[in-house]
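Sat 14:20. Reprocessing the chain from the morning session after the first attempt stalled halfway. Input below, unchanged.
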Amino acid sequence: MGDAEQTDEIDWLSSGEAARRLGIATRTLYRLIDDGQVPAYKFGRVIRLQRRDVDDYIERCRIEPGTLDTAPSPDPRAVSDS
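Finished this time. Tokens:
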């Protein structure tokens, strides 16, 4: 098998495998699929995802340094002295 043939093969993941790769529940993965955030394919009753699409989603979720708001949120239960 030549290099061109190997690169044309799609590396499929089941929904369970993709959810584990993302570290999320399968139900959460289905929500991401339904929202259009992660592409998926349905073959009969089976849902499959391409590994590269899952990896692309992981990269899109990367937090850039300096963009994370780490300031504590005000406690809504705190009572103002005014």
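The chain has a mean pLDDT of 88.
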